[in-house]
Design goal:
The complex is a heterodimer of chains A (about 200) and B (about 230). Chain A is mainly α. The longest helix of chain A has 23 residues. The chains are: A mainly alpha (about 200), B alpha+beta (about 230).
Amino acid sequence: MNLPGLLLALELSDGTQDAELARRLQRREPQAMADLYDRFGRLAYSIILSVVRDAAIAEDLVQETFLRVWNRAAGFDAERGALGPWLLAIARNRAIDHIRSAGARMDKNAAELDIFERAEHGNPASYVDIERDVLNADSARRIKAALSKLNQNQQKVIELAYYEGLSQTEMAERLGQPLGTVKTWVRTALKHLKDELGQAVMTA
Amino acid sequence: MTCDELSPDYATYALGSLDGEELAELRAHIARNCPNCTVGVRNANGLVAAMTGGIKLVDPPKRLRKRVLAMVDPNPRSSRMAWLFALTTALSLFVAVYSSLRYFASHDELLAAKYNATIEVLQVPAATEVTFGKGARGRIVISPKHGVAFSGQNMAALAPGKTYEMWVIPKGGGAPIPSGSFAPSGDGTALHLRPGPIDPAQTAAIAVSIEPEGGVQSPTKDQIIIVAPVGD
């Protein structure tokens, strides 16, 4: 077990704490924001920094991320509680939003991104039932092992998708490969990761 | 497309990389609360969340915690500092110099407070989106209670001695009201807040122009780069 994976699992996997923390956020308790930051601040910062690669921008985006969660906590299902994955998804997408907006692709993709945000972030219920079994220490180890087993092309498309937020069409353009080939790489890579993590992650 | 046909793309969708026909089809399924696709995407989010395990963890600077908590502080220090700054501008030169030192010491906090206030307003759901310039994009949000917030991305750098200036254009042909100047940061992003109540029913548009540094009292017509009509 590597230490970062263990710490990650510990920070993400306490659903009971999530539920209580969510209730306090809904009551607009400032101390709840402090506790939220203490639990997820480092993870959110790490994710954002891994995408934007600029510490000052990462700080701004962490701030936006936590404010967004604060403002939208009312829609969170405190009983089922998956606060961490929801917050981290917002963090990652704020970072991707930033790097996309800074590039020439921005106008073309702005509408797509906005719709994606509404679909993924506007509904915290999209993040229930996913973390307690998934983000435990063993799964953290398995995901790293699974990522390392992907071939070079598969690793590349996952990196482009995860860290740069590229669509499959954009990846095809970037890599100079047919769209069908890229789709195959993405699907195969994600299926491999899904298989490695088992039904605890994806039952569909 | 059927759910079976879409199911291999659930994880690609969760990752944010799905596009084209498959994306449109999957969104349509989700929009009509298709149980298969809704559960499939929800589970796929688990995979993306788990991929967080692959990143290198980095400790954020300690000041970031303070910035985050300042956003929800019911008695923000920044307000007190802003008041102090306003007061000292009316005092003698000696006091002004002294106060300036205090101002610079707290400049980061004032900027952070302004940034936070702008972001707060930008969270308002009813927003007016505007697009302008070559690849630049902006978001203008009018909050009757808090004011007008502007966020711009991919904005062109300004020539030396120039600034962007916001204008509130009243209905009925009244003169545009100067609403503060601002400059983009090095990465082409800009945030600006015109604080204070505003009546959207009495506002025809929000505009932004390029003006001499320090701002002007009426916009230079051929330098207006944004005009965002305000709906009733």
